[in-house]
Amino acid sequence: MRVIASSRDFAPTVLPGLAAPAAGRGIVDVMLVVGVLMLFCLSGYALEFFGIPYVSAGGSILSKLHPSLYVFSAALIVAVLAHPDPLGYGGGLIARRLGAVALIVASAIVFVIMARLKPTLFAAFLVDSIAAAGVIVLVLADTPPRVRLLLARLLHIVVATNCALAIVEVTTGWRLFPFGVGDQQMVWDYRATALFGHPLDGALAVGVYTVILITTRDVPGLASWLRIPLILLAMASMPAIGGRTSFGIVYAVAAVAAGIGVWRFLAGGRVTPLTAMVAALGVPVAAAMVLVAIEAGMLDNFIGRFQSDSGSASARLELFALFRDFGLQEWFVGYDVGQLRTQVRVQGLESGIENAWAQHLLLFGLPLSLMLWCALAAFLWEIVHECGRQAILPVLFLLVINTSSVGIAGKTTMLVLPVSIILILLGGGFRPQAVASQPLGRSPARA
Fold first, then answer.
1. What's the rounded Cα separation, in Å, for the pair 260 and 216?
2. SS3 for 180?
3. pTM of the predicted model, to two decimals?
4. Is 328 domain-assigned?
5. Residue at 261 is within a domain
6. 3-class DSSP state for residue 116?
């Protein structure tokens, strides 16, 4: 099989009278699609269910990295080595994606230093939670439009399936995968895990996806008549998933967007018949479903989380007491792991340190944290530059959630999943008008 590592450079010469072959990277694109499906469909709980000690203690160190990372890394290596000019292509890729490279390098530096200074600190989460996002950006950099369209269509299907599963799990009490690891399963927690795993990870991923659908005019791979139903499905699943901050952001964005739409309509703006029909049918049905859910008590647990959060909100303020004993040494290299655990227990932070940036400071110290944050800022700026202003709100969304949770200071997908969604739907020089002939839910003849 011939592998074309880039769809841009070294384009084959097309003879007169012959059609140009469809751009593609062969096995690289196949590995990319497989990696994306693994990333979104195999959560940490799913891997544990299948016998891979990804989250739990024990097992090979290789089992502590997500399988999708191996696939993405292999795809990147093949893409570079199979190019007619590997050194030139590799150097050009680095130059075009300096933010992603900086994030990978910064994560590696922190990992090496922490492994030397704090052997008991399990810093491998830096690879899965942070560096993996940089690898994905590099692999997606030269993805052909047709493959991006395929990824977008698969993403719509996977997110819709996750949302439907979340509603089913909360409604029936059945779970696709257990919520927890081994004998530490949280059977008392009603929140759905579905495909995306931990509720906070799932709520952020679904939230970013929903915000993009609400705020972006042209969403690749999605027919216009499916947009509102998918938005309503995602919003209906948010209480089942249970992320309160994500829920608040999504519903606030939806309310503002609806208000702007109504104002434009009253001001004489045009509304397509299809949009009017879908809204006229979808909104009343959604309102009726909400009333039925409230009457049936299906939202009681979610509403109860706002009434009593078990001290989670206050813990986000109390965690700053951990800095009271921060001396000069701690500012440089952070707390000793055992000392930090003791401080957390003394302060009564049962929920842990629910602020990624504070935990970085406490674990790594100021110099390494600043280096990591600068690399992350360059990475996110690069994404916004690549995807346009439509990416600003989703990026702010993921930053807010990481500020109110463990986020990228733990083994989560709170950077990898949102970044993948943003890049697939908004990035890579993707031109909807060039490939929108086959959106999800629309036949080519109607495009």
1. 14
2. strand
3. 0.86
4. no
5. yes
6. helix
